[in-house]
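Figure S7 source data.
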Amino acid sequence: MGTHAEQLRNKIESKQAVVAIIGLGYVGLPLLAAFHEAGYPVLGFDIDPEKPVLLKKGENYLPHLGSDMCKPFVGSKRFDATTDPKALQKADAIIVCVPTPLGQHGEPDLSYVVNTGVMIGENSREGQLVVLESTSYPGTTREDMFPAMIKAAAKKGVNLKLGDNVFVAFSPEREDPGRKSHNTTTIPKLVGGLDKVSGELATKLYTGPIKTVVPVTTAEVAEASKVFENVFRCVNIALVNELKTIMDAMGINVWEVIEAASTKPFGFMPFYPGPGLGGHCIPIDPFYLTWKAKEFKVPARFIEIAGEVNNSMPHYVVHKVAAALNNHSKATKGAKVLVLGLAYKPDIADTRESPTYELIELLLDMGAKVDYSDPFVKYTKPVRKYNLDMHSVDLTPENLAKYDCVLISTNHSAFDYGAVAKHSKLVVDTRNAMKKHAGEMGERLVRA
Ligand SMILES: NC(=O)c1ccc[n+]([C@@H]2O[C@H](COP(=O)([O-])OP(=O)(O)OC[C@H]3O[C@@H](n4cnc5c(N)ncnc54)[C@H](O)[C@@H]3O)[C@@H](O)[C@H]2O)c1
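Tokens for the predicted nicotinamide-adenine-dinucleotide complex:
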């Protein structure tokens, strides 16, 4: 028989371990497909009842991952998807990929993680490995998720002991939706256990589908590394956003400056300015760390300032739009503005935390008549903070000519920038999308 750890190790090695993924979104869904492809029996779990139904039909609801990704699930004896938590009893390994948003006052909202811990505890049995992937501050797995889990298990009469009959680890997800150069299986994966045995078992588990697994000594190191990666991006984006405002005041093209600095073969890496931060990670995760740092009375000045600079960008951009309209003898109030791109980055449909929402709202507040165009987002579904109820406008020459200003927020490659240059009265560009057309546009082009 052997110990629980030995039994689990054998199951993982022989690919008989049933791997359950909780939360089948941007992170969980590709992971489910990767474990299935690697030969493991998989169980997808989500509270959204639509997702298991679609997956059973082989349909992928995340278009950037390709329509074929879920086809192998159809008819596979190694695949199941459910909304029934009791099914988690079957799992040998449970990987948690639920959201970690910010609350109304910018504080971490760990309710998804804690509730999932409770749910796992209520349905647990001895000998399971649980891995948290959701991004959070160091200590989340040990201090928040695990206690919720063991308490719920104890209520059901299951006495869980770490490293003995339950194993727990953290392994951060590093997904970058839309990136062509890497996918879930090729991005190196950090793994840190709450104890040594848990770390070893989790490392073994990921070695199945993931090419490079990097064990670290504790779950806290793995948690902190992930937050550091996102802080690094947040601070550098803030730096380049600030540089943009300085260069603009000096009449220097910041994009040319970045291109020039990037020719240095060492000691520099380029970051690019934009209309503000978007996505599930960079606008959110750094503030999990600043919040936790307060507990230790350590100021996180750099990160807070980066947040301030990045959060001010939509206001900066809207100010540039107003000034550009003014230069064309047009008041913002009553001006017709077409915003290009609702998704937060090019060529995907993800609009989470997209700064375009704020741009639209600020322009509406100033009395502008605003439309948007995005080939990936045909309608503005209600999101946490916004309910715009708008439909995407087609980017035809006739439509472009109707607007007093076209504001480029996201540089989708599907946009016809030649047509934008030719038919727009005025373009405000936050992404250097009009680089090739700057000559022909003259004063009709403003960088912001
Ligand atoms: N999207 C990214 O690019 C990315 C990259 C790295 C890390 N992350 C992190 O990964 C985590 C998940 O992010 P995501 O982008 O996959 O989110 P997502 O919103 O795309 O998916 C989350 C899924 O979890 C489900 N869910 C919510 N509560 C649940 C519960 N109690 N039980 C089961 N399912 C539940 C939702 O229905 C949804 O399908 C977050 O912590 C995020 O910070 C995301």
